[in-house]
Amino acid sequence: MKVIDLNCDLGEGMSNDELIMPHISSCNIACGGHAGDADSIKSSLQLAQKFNVRAGAHPSFEDRENFGRLKLDWSRARFRESVTRQLQLFTTTAADLQMKWHHIKMHGALYHATAHEESFAQWTVEWLQEFYPDKAIYSLPKSLLHEKCKEAGQPFIAEVFVDRAYLKNGSLVPRSQQEAVHETTEQALHQLISMAHHNQVTTLDGANLLLIADTYCIHGDNVELVKQLPVLVKQLHQNQIQVAKYKA
């Protein structure tokens, strides 16, 4: 049986956290940038406690209108100020609940900027080393951020996406393109099985891409797929893949 960590972005106003949480093993909670506030963070953290799910912070560009999916022209100072403030909201709420938290995962355009762009990747590692040297960051394997974290000794968890199509260079198909998002159980199941058992994915342009992952992500705003999450997890088990629940 292959044991995996299945994570999901939550606390984003989709009203489906309670349906998702029993079926995943870690979650990334929006902390005020693209979505979320103190109340939603508290609610998501309490659900994570209830279902023994590892909780992490999910900061982003502060752009609610575009759900954090457009890159903003931030300076180093603006980046540090914003992500620090978002993490303070998250960590304060977790402390109020006397709850340990596990990791950090950037959201949307900030996720891709920190993974691939020299400036954002460097700023991220510097910020992590200063404030959260013991916390892992979820990001793309073989990315610039991955390399910089290895060099700095910063904990890193390689993440792949169950419900997103890939290009042969290892990047995700932009959401502006058709077929960027897998919305059916069949698509997601096929991709996850290939990733978990064979460390590879068939890209949109027909290549076989090697991807070695520590965690597998399903997006909480992928409404159609989330509805079928219990079915997906059951089918995973039938294919010798088990979601590993956290044991406190």
UniProtKB/TrEMBL annotation:
InterPro entries: Glyco_hydro/deAcase_b/a-brl, LamB/YcsF/PxpA-like. GO terms for biological process: carbohydrate metabolic process. It comes from the Bacteria. Pfam families: LamB_YcsF. This is Lactam utilization protein LamB. It comes from Nonlabens agnitus.
